Every structure is written in C-alpha cells, then in structure tokens.
Amino acid sequence: MYLPDIKLQGGGLCDELRKFGATITGGPSKDGEPSSMSRAELTSSSFDKEQGTKGKIDAVVAGLDNDFNYRKLCIANVLLQKHPEALPIATNEDAYDLVGSDARHLPGSGSFVKAIECCSQRDAINVGKPSNILAELLSEENGLNPARTLFLGDRLDTDIKFGKDGVMLSTLFLTGCTTSHTLVDLDVGTDDELFSHMIFPHMGMMGLDQEDI
User: Fold this and answer.
1) Residue where one domain finishes, among candidates 76, 95, 126
2) Do 120 and 165 belong together in one domain?
C-alpha cells in the first residue's frame, strides 16, 4: 500500500493502517528527500523496487500533507498505472479549510486527491465524510440506529451531507467552513450542500458540554 501524502501527526494514518496489518510505503517526507522528479528519473526508476512494494500494490491512499509535491504525485501516478488493480483511496475530499480573521482558504486533502485523479485518469474511492462506506461502518460497529442518531458538523458539503446521506438527523455549527454568508448565498441549498435539520452559531448554543457528546 502506497501513501503518497500522509503527514498527520507524524504519519498517524500510516500507524493506524499498520495496526490492521497493512504494509506501508511512502508516507511523510524524509529529510533531504527531493521534491521534484525529472523525465529521465521517471523513465529509469523501477518504482516497485525503490518503493519497497515487492511487486504488489493494493491501494494508493491520499490524505492531507503540507509537504505534498511533484515527486509524490509522479510516484502515485506511476504506481496506479503499473498496478491497474490497485485502489486509489481518499481519506477525504475536503476542498479547503478556513484560517485567519479574513477566512482565507487553506487547501485541503481534496486538492491532492484531484491532482492524482487528473494524471492517473482514475476516480478515487472516498472513505471519509460524506462516504456511505464510513456511515455504514460507524452504524455497524457502534450499533447505531441512524434515524435516532444526531450528527454534528461545521460544513455542509462533508458533515451535513454525510449525516443526511446516512439518514441521520443533522446539526450545523457556523464555526467552520460553512458560514452564515454561505447559507444566504445557497438560498435553498444544493444536492451537494444540503441544509441541516438544525443550525446553531456554535456548540454552546445547544446547551451541551463536550462531555455530553
């Protein structure tokens, strides 16, 4: 399994996958590792041997990485090309997060996923929100009745869509990527940005403490 761009708390996703018996290559950038790849290197590299895959790749997993670069994109693309049976997997497809007092867009995991999809000409399987795969897994493992489950989130395109697609009740907090201005611009909502059942400015307005959730 190749992870071209995982750098969550020093490779947290890699560690989680190893717990389930996956053999991982790639992951966080190493000190001194080049960020580019020339045509000559791309042509001459064996990739399988250099990535330590022993000739078999089951999946190429893309997640958030502040050090995503052209080299990682090249490796992910060639491995998917050489292993057409390998699954391209996205941990999520978030377009951006908001940072700063002026709500600047910080590119999210979806940016890297789209880059890999574009050059490989393959669609990634999203296993994060709003994936039905994740909704079914959570329900099965925790014995949840979706119709009696309240899903809380701060963005319409992932959190609220995840809750609604999973037939759950949903509550939106205006403390994340979806703001009051977003709701006004959307008017009645769209297929990808459905309105939630309830909306609160922040979690404190629900009268719940963190311990209650």
Assistant:
1) 126
2) no
H helix runs in 143-192, sequence order:
161-165, 180-186
Which distant-in-sequence residues (6+ apart) come within 8 Å of 4 by Cβ?
A: 26, 60, 61, 62, 65, 68, 72, 73, 75, 76, 112, 116
E strands along the chain, which residues? 2-3, 25-26, 59-62, 87-90, 96-99, 104-107, 125-126, 150-153, 169-173, 198-200
User: Rounded distance, CA 43 to CA 25, Å?
Assistant: 21
CA–CA distance, 205 with 15 (Å, rounded to integer) = 37
What span, in angstroms and rounded, lies between the C-alpha atoms of 59 and 89? 7
* Distance between CA atoms of residues 175 and 6, nearest Å: 26
pLDDT digits (tens, 9 = 90+) for 133-157: 999 999 999 999 999 999 999 999 8
Question: pTM for the complete prediction?
Answer: 0.80
State the CATH number of the domain containing residue 187. 3.40.50.1000
